[in-house]
Structures
1.
Amino acid sequence: MKLLEEAGIYVFTGVSTRFNTINRLDPYASYHSTAMTEFFQTVNLMAQYPNTLGLHAGNSITNSPKNQRAAPVIKAVVRDLKEYMKLQNAASGQRILPIGYTAATVDLLDTTLLKYLSVGDPASAIDFWTCNCYMWAGKSNLQMSGYNSLIQRLQDAAIPIFMSEYGVNMPNPRLFEETLALYSPQMSQVFSGGCAYTFWEAPNSYGLVDLVNQEHPRNSSAEAVEQRHQVALTRANNTKKTAEKRYTDRGTLSVFHDFIRYRENLKATRDIESTWEGDVMEREAAERGNVDTTQMSWPWEPEHQMPDTVVDWQQLEDELSGKGLLYVM
């Protein structure tokens, strides 16, 4: 994190761990004391770093109509995370981080979830929303790509939205013209930028750079390591793929032409004048907090409701004030 900070790079991360996350197939059973304890530990860790920009309460959990019932559980996790950060801040001055959610798509299913998670009591509402978007392919424009309809669909969100992934790799080469569109006056009314997918090269061929080395990762055979090395070496020597090589103490860094195109388009956005109206978003944000959600209906109701907290807040307050041990129900 320190190296990222020195490079001017900010970080979003999820609160889930490899052992505990909200299970889309059985969301209510996966919302329990152990899970929340681990989520709180993630908060404590990431709040230490000045370049932590925010936390995700979930990532692509409701990716089909049959698991929309996870929505109330996601909202419960947001509620508990916000309450925990408020108590930690009062007890120790620890930073309060924005809490958001990452959607797999930008379709109607996910925009319904966006509305549900962002309206009503701010104590249980997300602060930002991110989505994966691969609508723009090759040479296109706002109309052909569907970005115009995307703007219309999300324009009433009243919370910061950005693309957590974008940049299809077919057709090749990747032009990244959508980067210019993303920061245009039309889109900056709704979107706060985005993250091109992805930095390191992988078998899916979405990487912008690659590292040629012969390090031996755990659980990898010497044969597998050598095979990956040869593949990376072939890419590095392919002038149609690699624009430049940089020699580091960890190996040769191959910088792809895709990265150069992305970087140049990103630089060009600095000259784009935004017409973003901050006061409008502030007003709309205040209004969404006053929405009476009891008068709204959702696809997963009435069968599925936001569960009561699994955290014993009195015990937690005692722990934070040094009076007792942390305990969750």
2.
Amino acid sequence: MSAYQVPPDHNLPPFDHNTPFKRQEPPNPNWKFGQSIDSSEAGRKWMEGEQAGWMTFDAAKEKPGDLYALLLSGVLPRPVAFVSSISSDGVENLAPFSYFNTVSAHPPTISISVNRGPNEKDTSKNIKATKGFTVNIISEPWLEQANAACIDCPGTVSEWPITGLTKEPSIYVQAPRVKESAFSMECILNQVVDLTPDDTPGVPSTHLVLGTIKYIHVRKDMLNPTRNVVDPDKLKPIARMGDISYTRIRDAFRLPRFSWAKEEEGLRAAGLVEEKEQANL
């Protein structure tokens, strides 16, 4: 058995497990309604890049592989769903997916987009067959274990022993959750939406899985002591970038939610309200 090796990247420092999570001011804390981007030095420098011009990609004309790489490099960071599922024959599967997010809190719903190659992936087949699965959020200390589940082993082989991760029984679905994950969701299948390209009619390229969340398991040491919300500094979640790159969350800033009732008078006085009468329906 070969040793686990990271692809060669020269002169990289070792991973710093002790980098502190910090909260800071937003990028332009003095911004006011109506101010353009060139009101700050950072904004002016950002817009200087436009002098290089634009490249526009016609999605209908791009090769699927090239479009895939472009989207992954530009839509980021992406949260990662580490999905545990089980086949109708009882084979337990683990796989990470970065086309993933929550889409509703009421009803509590998540989405996972499962791309398919020549054959449908085990995850979407299993979810359609057994209707239940778990989504486990990956944290820094066990990223390598989760990444091992990317291996393209046959559908008759379980990724669990390969990853070294620990099964924890679920209370509602058959598929186990990952014990090492400090935030896990037990889900049941809501529906699968098949996405089919125009050039392959009748042959879907992607299965968009919508799952209803039945139970959420959160390790107590992850929670804010005064509210039932997760502390990101403790969870240390991992996100996907482009190619085979990952990233982590190490700083945050807060921005206000504005109220029209409070701001309308000032916005009108500043001449910033453009209003059109709605047609009678």
3.
Amino acid sequence: MSLSDWYSLNHFNNQGIEGLGEYIHGHGLKFGIYLDYGTLTCAGYPGSMNFLEIDSKSLARWKVDYVKVDGCYSPVEAMPDGYEKFSRLLNETGRPIVYSCSYPAYIPWRSNPRSLDWERLKTNCNLWRMFDDIDDSWGSVLTIINFMRDTQSTLQPIAGPGHWNDPDMLVIGNFGLSMDQQRVQMGMWCLFAAPLLISADMDHMDPGSEEILKNPHLISINQDSGGHQAKYITTKNGVQLWTRQLADQSNTWAIAFMNPVSGGGPKAISVALKDMQLESPPLEPIFFDLTDVFTGEVFGSVQLNEMFTVRVNPTGIVMFKVEVHKPAYIAHILLQYLGLRNVSVSII
């Protein structure tokens, strides 16, 4: 029995899943669905193996916008070819469907990154799971962050517009994370340029959680057109330092200080921007504004080599958008144009 037949017989009365899709689109939402490249799904329902062509056409007919294809009950060695075939079949329908692939999570690539053809993966898939499922706990969120840190030499270069590493869903708005920990997940997922898929009851969400999810400063970082995944810089006094290059504005970055430790009080970290490995920053005497992405307030203006101090709560995060202080930068460029290269510029 194909996926199309099963859904039509078992759900949504006489309207079938097409009616469900119309209902979803009628409310201004996107329509996503879960499949499995196997004989069964992970929950034991019919899988798509041997039905790839009919299932791709069904998705297009139902006007699906997003499909996640899991990998239970399928041979690992068949996955790269099978997922590639389904990518081709989806494209042949003419329906633009975001394609999420799960097969990297089933291949033990960490011990040998070359065992997975990453170029083939990003050619055929828009995003991919490559690690364990998340659960509603700080331990799970931190494990994924540390995984992204430890594998960045492999994962960071392949992330970009149209092909994303997917560290799994946001569990913000549930019960397992404190507010600080929810800020950590949202902040780090935005730094990772990760897909932001909410796994929570939107009808019964705490206002604080909703505020985190709707934060425009964080969303703008996540959606930055460059698609660069953040890089881990170092750990200082137990706090992880991260930097992401931004592209929507020139000379702009996002930086974060994440404290993974649950005990004790806030940790004070003193750094200079030069320690954050910003890519190609203008040289001094330029000043840089540090804007707190959670409050929208300017933390301060500093030069590249000037030390500043932040205090990071246990299992918390401090995150800034860094951009050139525009009045001082304009004055600096003007002085250079006039040939006055050794004149200092004060912050306005």
